[in-house]
Prior knowledge:
Layout: H1 2-14, H2 22-31, E1 35-39, H3 44-53, H4 56-61, E2 64-68, E3 73-78, H5 83-98, H6 110-127, H7 129-156, E4 161-164, E5 170-171, H8 177-180, E6 186-189, H9 190-196, E7 198-199
Parallel strand pairs: 1-3, 5-7
Antiparallel strand pairs: 2-3, 4-6
Amino acid sequence: xxxxxxxxxxxxxxxxxxxxxxxxxxxxxxxxxxxxxxxxxxxxxxxxxxxxxxxxxxxxxxxxxxxxxxxxxxxxxxxxxxxxxxxxxxxxxxxxxxxxxxxxxxxxxxxxxxxxxxxxxxxxxxxxxxxxxxxxxxxxxxxxxxxxxxxxxxxxxxxxxxxxxxxxxxxxxxxxxxxxxxxxxxxxxxxxxxxxxxxxxxxxxxxx
Length: 208
């Protein structure tokens, strides 16, 4: 519940809308007091900056990270990523900043990483709730239809048992002529009958 409230607060605070872009998330970074720096690992320019900020290893090991110092507040993401990847990285860093995880000389813990990952999922779920509901509805309807097709004949049955004959391909009511004249006929459950046999067209076992 706390994570849900945090996610709702993040959305409300920054007016985040469905189908947000990397530009939207970059604007949120600015509102949180951070600048976006896109870098190419091991380039001279980035090495000099990260060396000054004491985060060279962090930059080489991650696709994104945020740093808070006396000099600057930076959200750093690698260049040459797709828009979808960029959105993922920027949202992740924005949530860390929003949660207060990014502080001077601080290290983000695995617990904080998990919290932010959960928040990201919740934010997306809230913003795309209608899409998730539609998807779940489609899945449920499909399952019900398939289940209905399988059980339609069975649901109409008024008998708990039906009768079949050795080598026969149809199931029958107890008083069906095909059963009364065949002493070797035997009883099986309605479910087994419907799964393995066709209904008799003469006695129509599925009708009252």
